[in-house]
Amino acid sequence: MYERRVVRGNTYALHILPWTGEPDPLELQRRREAHRKALARKRAKEQLRTRTPDPLEGRRHVDVQTELYLEELADRIIEVDVECQTDAFLDRPATPLFIPAKTGRDMATQIWEGDLFDFDIEVRPMLEVLVGKTIEQALLEVMEEEELANMRAHQNAYLELRCAELAEVQRLEEQERRHREEKERRRQQQMQILKLEKETSERIAARAFAQRYLSDLIPSIFGSLRTSGYFFDPVERDTETGFLPFAMENVEESIEKKVLGRILADNLIRDVTQLRLDSFEQKVLLIPREPVVVPPPEPDVEPKSSGEALVVESAVEEEVLTQPVQPESSDQAEAPGQTEPSEQAEASGQPESAGEVEIAVGTDPPEQLDVPDSSKAEAETEIKDPEPQ
């Protein structure tokens, strides 16, 4: 890393940095003005340069090459694979054996048999050396074997002693471990005993406190519970919850049926009375038909709801004879046995009432309408209640 403030090389030739003071403000302003004028001139030249006119609507400018030689442009660079193969290397020849150059002059000599040494005499010291060396080597090997045997015996004795010491150490460690475990177990047992004694004392104290505290609380609680109805007689509770609601429901149903029968009977009586009154005022003759009696339903038919009751309506259809009452004339003879109602009433000595109906003389009196009695209506509409389970 280069730092020009750090001087390198000979310290006698120091690089003295020139002192630069504050730049002149007038010089800076003059430089800024010159730079601004240069930019303005460059911008004016760009504006005065002839430009290509804007394209027509629906068209656009396309960049084209104006060089003398056109260059093919493609989105993807054209790549061509070219292969080349060099010649095979020749095998390196074997390096020839180096034979030094011959120097000096050739000389010759003659050695006769027995000139150099006598084998029988010269071989004796060599044999003594070989035999002595062999014996010495054998003795060394025997001594080495004995030494190795002694070392092996000493090693075996040491290993036996070491194994015995290790066994003794393991025995002592195991004994210490058993003592430590026994100590820990005794300590845990003592802690459990103390804990049980503490819990027992706390339980005894809590029991005594609870007995002393609940001695007056339990009777008051049982009394309040008995007053609130938590302790009850099973027979009484069964009677209140099972029998009384069933009996009250049946009684209410029978009362509703009786009231309904009475209302129907009152309505029928009122309708018949009103009908007779209207017929008497209009002076028309009513011929009642036989009432249609609807048989009561089977006892196994259950009502649709508790508030409903089967109502048997007797449809009474009456035909009103719109025969005007003709006044009596002298030329029309009265039919034998026919008299006016007024005369009949005068003959009987009973005045006409608003509830009487005109009846022709000599005809059978009209049948009386069956007005359902309240007791009969109740008997007819009453449904056999299901047996309680």
UniProtKB/TrEMBL annotation:
Residues 315-389 are annotated as: Disordered. It is found in: Cytoplasm, Cytoskeleton, Flagellum axoneme. It comes from the Eukaryota. InterPro entries: Radial_spoke_3. Residues 164-199 form a coiled coil. Residues 373-389 have a biased composition (Basic and acidic residues). Residues 323-332, 339-351 have a biased composition (Polar residues). It holds the Pfam family Radial_spoke_3. Keywords: Cell projection, Cilium, Coiled coil, Cytoplasm, Cytoskeleton, Flagellum, Phosphoprotein. One of its GO terms (cellular component) is cilium. Belongs to the flagellar radial spoke RSP3 family. This is Radial spoke head 3. It comes from Anolis carolinensis.
